[in-house]
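Handout, section 3.2

Students often ask what a structure token actually looks like in practice. Rather than define it abstractly, here is a full record for RNA-binding protein. The first block is the sequence as you would receive it.
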Amino acid sequence: MSWLPLSFGAPMVLFGLLALPVIWWLLRFTPPRPQTELFPPLKILARVLKREETPRQSPWWLTLLRLLMAALVIMALADPVLNPREETPARGAGLALVIDNGWASAPDWDKRVATARRLIADAGTSDIPVILAFTAEKPNADIGPFDANAALDRLRATMPRPIPTDRQAIYARVGEALAAMPGAGIAVLSDGLEAPGDEPAFAALLARSAASLIWAAPEHIAPIAVTATENEVDGFSLTAIRAPGNAAPARLTAGAFDDKGRRIADAVLAFGAGEDTATATMTVPFELRNDFASVALDGERHAGAVRVLDESSRRRRVGLISQSEADQAQPLLSPLYYIRRALSPFADLIEPSNPDLAEAIPQILDQKPAMIIMSDVGAMPEQARTRLADWVQGGGTLVRFAGPRLANAGNDDLLPVRLRGGERNFGGALSWTTPQPVTEFPASGPFADLTPPREVTVSRQVLAEPSADIVDRTWVSLADGTPLVTGAKRGKGSIVLFHIAPTATWSNLPISGSFVEMLQRVVLLSRNQGSIETPADATPAALAPYRMIAADGALVPPSPEARPLTPGSGAAVTMENPPGLYGSEAGVLAHNLLSSESRMQPIARPQAQVPVTEIAYAFDESSLLKGPFIAAALVLMALDTLAVLWMGGILGRRRKGRNTAATTAAASMLLAASLSVLLVQNASAQDAKPDDAASIEAISTTRLAYVITGTSGVDAVSRAGLQGLTRFLVEKTSMEPGEPTGVDIAKDELAFYPLIYWPIDPASPMPDEDAIARIDAYMRQGGTVLFDTRDQYSSGFGEGSASPATQRLRDILGNLNIPPLEPVPADHVLTKSFYMVPEFPGRFNGSPMWVEASLDASNDDDRPVRTGDGVSPILITANDLAGAWAIDAGGAPLFPTVPPDPMQRVYALRGGVNIMMYMLTGNYKSDQVHVPILLERLGQ
């Protein structure tokens, strides 16, 4: 029953308004009770002669006031709601709620959570179980069934992921769970984008006999994503896409950032009406383009709007040198024609103005190229050759092509192998019966992952002298085993030799597509910095996660769930390999979310044989008016009381109507009692406190506690880490702590725990002022908080730090009363409370442990530790202690240490024991040094 925009939860109570006329009649026409007094008879007789002055009825305005007060109480009891939402109760024996939490759901995740919360609340009202599954989580994640409260807790702990959805695996899992819950309803909260395998996924989900289907999808697919970037000749181009069907034009700005996060270039992307693809070009010098580390779209808060770049996206400057004059009438016979055509799309080509090598080579070297290509260059002037050799030793890449001049020039040290004199020609003394094809590329060479060109044949070449290392230096060979391309390292640089001419006269390789791929690969090898070296006899090593793209598009440190990525494996973007950069500071590999072929197609609602209800994502804008109505009734009651006191003369006006005042005051007291009961009922749920039994249980056993951040991965690591430390405490000390406990700093009682471990997660919401105030009170009352930013390899705690975790820690500490801090001194109690530990490593090693500074401490010769009473209320580290302590169900470590030192984990656990002993016993180690003196004074 509702009258928009106002509805009532208990509309039957409104029939009480029919009693208002009766109340009006009683208040209006019922005279007050006569006043009774006992006096001598004459006094009574004397008063009989006077006119009765007792009022006959209440004033109209006071009657109206009381009627309005009664109406407000009746309406409050009817549970009024402003802007009521439409309920979508689950039909059937349960509710299976499936939510897309991939990258496309990040921009309006809060709205999706609000919609899911209403569905779960309606299921809780119907007292039915809830299956809760997310399509961007691990397929083996727990999906229930849960009760409504547990489902809401899991919903609050789940965040969007920067990865595509996996509906096929998750829907199949939910379908299996529905087999044990026949007749349950299904609710699908989609991100609106079509994904591969949607049709069989929906078929598996709806295969069970569901009672109903609730379908939610965005009315408008808003995300705009970057799918491709290219460092071209005249600028840096990027391509962005949006979902088709957008009739309105759109303009947005894209920014390019360097590895420090500084914005160094901009471009404007313009989508026309009905267009779903837009391109833009940043026309900046290629030296500046080579500093691009990432490209992001302004205003787009999701992982698809960010694209990270590695060395492969940087254009290199390539110098071209040839001693042959170009024939303008026959350009196809030019020795540099095919090289120019192959390299111009992804390199900046420079050529000397004079073919004389004495001037050409220095002129090219002065422009600091990354690679120099020489076509049929024979003997070089000594001065130019020396300078060219020094350039190669310093990191340059020299590529040479054979020809008549090189074949007859003899050998020098600017060739990867020694050559035989002359050339091998079809029809000569060493001729082949037929032109030779190219064989498989060696696995140890740079072309190993390229497809060998089957159509390429060679009819003329220069031969290499056989040597012990000729096989290792051969990158491409012919079917008869003779080398076609050879290469060798020279200092920090490389020398590459194509044993054929760069024209189609010796081989048809220059006119094949493989020629372009081979030259492009050699250009990539010309990188002077950031290259990742791979042993020639080994497969590429897996690259560790370095910087990941979060769901909101920010670059963050890798999470514990991220795993190494194998280069060239074609790995898809998954939870184990999220988008971002893999490698180290020495060199990185970009692993982006979308490819140039990616498109955003709207999802189609599945066909179902059950009742379907379509709902829209929206926040709950309903407001409960029970409290305001009660408050208004209390205000009217106060006015009524003042009016009664005024009429009774208590306020000094007159002393008539005492009977009426007493009667009215009694009625007001009765109404106040009723309203008080109503207020207590309304606030009982919010004022609930842990009972005595729960408090006694909490303090009977010492427990380690950690702050629940709301990020499932971080909270799981915290719990596993404290479980590992608890197990180590039981094995090595007489202390037997209970199971670790996660605490919500905004709600839970903190005084039960001597130490609270707080992993700083920049993706978690910033604690509000009340939560910060509770932490501040906890620290003032003797508790200790161990803050762990877990970003040792991103930054430290100092002023120059700028990692997201460190910045979040600064924001939190800015609202707390923090004492002066210092790294743990060598003579601090923490270093000797149980074990002798000089440092406090975790999963990482290098960050100091920060404690409250002992500003006035002084050490005597006979005191082994720093003096001072009490315990530091704060500890800060960046070494990821929980990551080092964390164990699985079998007791094995969950994460490797960095660096991989087995003793580092042992030292981390010993440091944890020292921290716990310090929390529980304070500076007792310092006090124990006086025990011998005290015993001597006692004569013992």
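Discussion prompt for tutorial groups: The domain at 318-525 is CATH 3.40.50.880 (Rossmann fold). How would you have guessed this from the sequence alone?
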